[in-house]
Automatic annotation (TrEMBL):
InterPro entries: Acyl_CoA_acyltransferase (IPR016181), GNAT_dom (IPR000182). Pfam families: Acetyltransf_7. Gene3D superfamilies: 3.40.630.30. Residues 15-185 form the N-acetyltransferase domain. This is GNAT family N-acetyltransferase. It comes from Streptomyces evansiae.
Length: 194
């Protein structure tokens, strides 16, 4: 692999990371999420409505990773945090207990990040989240991830996200989540890639 200093995305040549009209391609995006993360048909229906609602929030943005044939193989979207939003109301008491409550202000929330399993581990997830946060006017970013060792947690940690609270119980979720936060811009790729 060639050296890749700084913040240059390491995506494969045939994959393009760029702005995504997520409202128009929500079914494709949820199909990627279903493969990457595992979603039932019922969950896909629920997510469909949630994504469209999120996209109505001022400042909500999405990026997609597409093949040369314009097939979507990854996406990320997020929005400025609002303490009144459901996600924020769930995590706030956990953050407050650890003195991390101020992370909910002036923060860009990464709501979803998913890469098709066949295209994982090639730098696409890193390019998507870095591209989205690089364009955020907020000085920091927060997100939640299932609280276990996973490629997602590994990627977030390597980008500079640290744990702000752990073992968070979201209503209806079978597994506990961790909330992580990073100051922006995110860290570039680690030197061992060179
Ligand atoms: C998380 C996800 C989006 C990452 O996308 P990706 O394109 O595979 O990620 P990249 O190739 O850009 O980055 C790979 C990084 O993931 C991390 N990673 C990969 N496999 C890992 C593992 N088994 N354990 C820990 N970290 C791992 C590493 O930090 C790795 O970077 P490195 O190669 O410098 O060590 C992808 O794995 C995915 O879609 N997972 C399923 C859905 C999901 O969990 N989404 C996040 C919800 S919070």
């Amino acid at each position: 692999m060639s050296s890749n200093p700084g913040h240059t995305p390491r995506t494969p040549d045939e994959i393009t990371v760029g702005p995504l009209d997520l409202a128009a391609r929500v079914d494709e995006a949820l199909a990627v999420q279903a493969l990457a993360f595992g979603l039932t048909d019922e969950e896909i229906d629920v997510r469909h409505h949630i994504v469209l609602r999120h996209l109505g929030v001022p400042g909500a943005r999405a990026l997609g990773a597409t093949t040369a044939e314009n097939r979507l193989v990854g996406f990320v979207y997020g929005l400025p945090n609002d303490r009144a939003h459901w996600w924020s109301t769930v995590v706030q008491p956990y953050l407050r207990r650890l003195g991390n409550d101020e992370w909910l202000d002036d923060s860009f929330v990464i709501t979803e990040l998913h890469v098709h399993p066949r295209h994982q581990n090639r730098g696409i997830g890193r390019a998507l989240i870095t591209g989205l946060t690089d364009a955020a006017p907020q000085p920091r970013s927060i997100l939640s991830a299932i609280d276990r060792d996973s490629p997602a947690r590994g990627l977030y940690a390597s980008l500079g996200y640290r744990d702000l609270a752990r073992q968070i119980a979201f209503p209806g979720a079978p597994l506990p989540y961790a909330v992580m936060g990073a100051t922006l811009p995110l860290r570039g790729p680690r030197s061992h890639r060179a």
